[in-house]
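Quick one, probably user error.
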Protein backbone atom coordinates (compact mmCIF):
# COMPACT_ATOMS: atom_id res chain seq x y z
CA UNK A 1 0.00 0.00 0.00
CA UNK A 2 1.39 3.44 -0.89
CA UNK A 3 1.74 6.16 1.74
CA UNK A 4 -1.40 8.02 0.60
CA UNK A 5 -3.55 4.88 0.90
CA UNK A 6 -1.92 4.09 4.26
CA UNK A 7 -2.75 7.57 5.54
CA UNK A 8 -6.38 7.35 4.35
CA UNK A 9 -6.73 3.98 6.13
CA UNK A 10 -5.25 5.40 9.36
CA UNK A 11 -7.56 8.41 9.26
CA UNK A 12 -10.61 6.23 8.58
CA UNK A 13 -9.77 3.79 11.38
CA UNK A 14 -8.54 6.25 14.04
CA UNK A 15 -9.70 9.76 13.33
CA UNK A 16 -13.12 9.67 11.66
CA UNK A 17 -16.39 9.19 13.55
CA UNK A 18 -20.08 9.39 12.67
CA UNK A 19 -22.58 11.09 14.96
CA UNK A 20 -23.69 14.66 15.68
CA UNK A 21 -20.84 17.10 16.20
CA UNK A 22 -20.21 20.83 16.45
CA UNK A 23 -17.01 21.66 14.57
CA UNK A 24 -14.46 24.34 15.50
CA UNK A 25 -16.07 26.48 12.78
CA UNK A 26 -19.37 26.29 14.67
CA UNK A 27 -20.95 24.19 11.92
CA UNK A 28 -22.90 21.04 12.70
CA UNK A 29 -21.76 17.83 11.02
CA UNK A 30 -22.47 14.11 11.08
CA UNK A 31 -18.76 13.47 10.42
CA UNK A 32 -15.99 14.33 12.86
CA UNK A 33 -12.35 13.95 11.89
CA UNK A 34 -9.93 14.29 14.81
CA UNK A 35 -6.74 14.13 12.76
CA UNK A 36 -4.64 14.40 15.93
CA UNK A 37 -5.39 10.73 16.64
CA UNK A 38 -3.37 10.02 13.51
CA UNK A 39 -0.95 12.97 13.39
CA UNK A 40 0.27 12.36 16.93
CA UNK A 41 0.86 8.62 16.49
CA UNK A 42 4.32 7.27 15.61
CA UNK A 43 3.23 5.61 12.35
CA UNK A 44 1.08 8.62 11.46
CA UNK A 45 4.06 10.95 11.87
CA UNK A 46 6.29 8.57 9.91
CA UNK A 47 3.76 8.49 7.05
CA UNK A 48 2.76 12.16 7.01
CA UNK A 49 6.25 13.71 7.02
CA UNK A 50 7.58 12.08 3.83
CA UNK A 51 4.19 12.25 2.06
CA UNK A 52 3.90 15.97 2.79
CA UNK A 53 7.46 16.56 1.53
CA UNK A 54 6.64 14.68 -1.65
CA UNK A 55 3.46 16.73 -2.21
CA UNK A 56 5.26 20.03 -1.56
CA UNK A 57 7.99 19.10 -4.05
CA UNK A 58 5.36 18.13 -6.64
CA UNK A 59 3.86 21.63 -6.21
CA UNK A 60 7.29 23.22 -6.62
CA UNK A 61 7.19 24.54 -3.05
CA UNK A 62 10.64 24.77 -1.46
CA UNK A 63 9.92 26.50 1.83
CA UNK A 64 12.40 27.62 4.45
CA UNK A 65 9.88 26.68 7.14
CA UNK A 66 6.48 25.11 7.75
CA UNK A 67 3.95 25.83 10.47
CA UNK A 68 0.49 26.89 11.37
CA UNK A 69 -1.94 27.57 14.13
CA UNK A 70 -1.31 25.54 17.28
CA UNK A 71 -2.33 22.74 18.11
CA UNK A 72 -3.45 20.97 14.97
CA UNK A 73 -0.54 22.07 12.78
CA UNK A 74 2.19 21.33 15.32
CA UNK A 75 2.75 17.57 14.94
CA UNK A 76 2.41 17.80 11.16
CA UNK A 77 5.01 20.58 10.98
CA UNK A 78 7.40 18.61 13.19
CA UNK A 79 6.91 15.46 11.07
CA UNK A 80 7.77 17.44 7.94
CA UNK A 81 10.83 19.03 9.57
CA UNK A 82 12.07 15.60 10.70
CA UNK A 83 11.47 14.02 7.27
CA UNK A 84 13.27 16.95 5.62
CA UNK A 85 16.31 16.41 7.85
CA UNK A 86 16.40 12.72 6.91
CA UNK A 87 16.15 13.72 3.23
CA UNK A 88 18.98 16.22 3.73
CA UNK A 89 16.73 19.09 2.60
CA UNK A 90 16.14 20.80 5.96
CA UNK A 91 12.92 22.71 6.51
CA UNK A 92 12.37 24.41 9.87
CA UNK A 93 9.10 24.14 11.82
CA UNK A 94 7.31 26.91 13.71
CA UNK A 95 4.09 27.38 15.65
CA UNK A 96 1.61 30.24 15.44
CA UNK A 97 -0.01 31.02 18.79
CA UNK A 98 -3.71 31.79 18.87
CA UNK A 99 -2.85 34.92 20.89
CA UNK A 100 0.40 36.75 21.58
CA UNK A 101 2.09 35.89 24.86
CA UNK A 102 1.51 38.43 27.59
CA UNK A 103 4.99 37.83 29.03
CA UNK A 104 8.56 37.50 27.72
CA UNK A 105 8.91 38.69 24.15
CA UNK A 106 5.17 38.62 23.44
CA UNK A 107 5.68 36.61 20.25
CA UNK A 108 2.86 35.20 18.15
CA UNK A 109 5.20 32.91 16.16
CA UNK A 110 7.39 30.50 18.12
CA UNK A 111 10.34 28.54 16.84
CA UNK A 112 13.04 29.23 14.25
CA UNK A 113 10.97 31.47 11.98
CA UNK A 114 12.87 34.39 10.44
CA UNK A 115 11.59 37.50 8.68
CA UNK A 116 11.76 36.87 4.93
CA UNK A 117 11.22 33.10 5.23
CA UNK A 118 9.19 31.39 2.53
CA UNK A 119 6.68 29.16 4.28
CA UNK A 120 3.98 26.60 3.72
CA UNK A 121 1.10 26.99 6.15
CA UNK A 122 0.11 23.67 7.73
CA UNK A 123 -3.38 22.57 8.78
CA UNK A 124 -4.55 19.29 10.21
CA UNK A 125 -8.14 19.63 8.92
CA UNK A 126 -9.51 22.35 6.63
CA UNK A 127 -13.22 23.10 7.05
CA UNK A 128 -13.72 26.84 6.47
CA UNK A 129 -10.05 27.80 6.07
CA UNK A 130 -10.26 30.19 9.03
CA UNK A 131 -7.33 28.74 11.00
CA UNK A 132 -5.07 28.79 7.94
CA UNK A 133 -6.06 32.39 7.20
CA UNK A 134 -5.24 33.39 10.79
CA UNK A 135 -1.81 31.72 10.49
CA UNK A 136 -1.23 33.39 7.11
CA UNK A 137 -2.03 36.78 8.63
CA UNK A 138 0.47 36.20 11.46
CA UNK A 139 3.22 35.00 9.12
CA UNK A 140 2.74 37.93 6.74
CA UNK A 141 2.73 40.40 9.64
CA UNK A 142 6.08 38.92 10.74
CA UNK A 143 7.57 39.33 7.27
CA UNK A 144 7.09 35.81 5.91
CA UNK A 145 6.12 34.88 2.36
CA UNK A 146 3.40 32.23 2.06
CA UNK A 147 3.83 29.71 -0.76
CA UNK A 148 0.61 27.82 -0.05
CA UNK A 149 -1.35 25.73 2.43
CA UNK A 150 -0.87 22.02 3.08
CA UNK A 151 -3.55 20.13 5.02
CA UNK A 152 -3.69 16.55 6.18
CA UNK A 153 -7.46 16.49 5.53
CA UNK A 154 -9.74 18.63 3.39
CA UNK A 155 -13.29 18.20 4.74
CA UNK A 156 -14.44 19.39 1.29
CA UNK A 157 -16.83 21.93 2.80
CA UNK A 158 -15.59 25.14 1.16
CA UNK A 159 -12.36 25.85 3.06
CA UNK A 160 -10.15 25.08 0.07
CA UNK A 161 -12.27 27.39 -2.11
CA UNK A 162 -12.03 30.20 0.47
CA UNK A 163 -8.24 29.87 0.64
CA UNK A 164 -7.88 29.69 -3.13
CA UNK A 165 -10.19 32.72 -3.51
CA UNK A 166 -7.82 34.57 -1.15
CA UNK A 167 -4.97 33.69 -3.52
CA UNK A 168 -3.42 30.64 -1.83
CA UNK A 169 -2.81 27.27 -3.44
CA UNK A 170 -3.98 24.32 -1.31
CA UNK A 171 -2.63 20.78 -1.17
CA UNK A 172 -4.48 18.15 0.89
CA UNK A 173 -3.03 14.75 1.71
CA UNK A 174 -6.54 13.24 2.00
CA UNK A 175 -10.13 14.25 1.37
CA UNK A 176 -13.24 13.58 3.44
CA UNK A 177 -14.90 11.57 0.66
CA UNK A 178 -12.04 9.09 0.43
CA UNK A 179 -11.90 8.76 4.24
CA UNK A 180 -15.65 8.06 4.36
CA UNK A 181 -15.26 5.51 1.55
CA UNK A 182 -12.49 3.78 3.53
CA UNK A 183 -14.70 3.78 6.66
CA UNK A 184 -17.49 2.09 4.70
CA UNK A 185 -15.13 -0.50 3.22
CA UNK A 186 -14.16 -1.86 6.64
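Nope, works fine. Designed sequence:
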Amino acid sequence: MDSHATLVQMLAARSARRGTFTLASGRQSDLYIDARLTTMSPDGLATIGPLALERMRARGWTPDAVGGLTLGADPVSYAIAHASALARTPIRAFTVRKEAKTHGTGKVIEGPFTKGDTVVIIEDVITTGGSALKAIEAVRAAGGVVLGVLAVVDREEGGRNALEAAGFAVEALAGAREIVAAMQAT
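The chain has one domain: 3-185.
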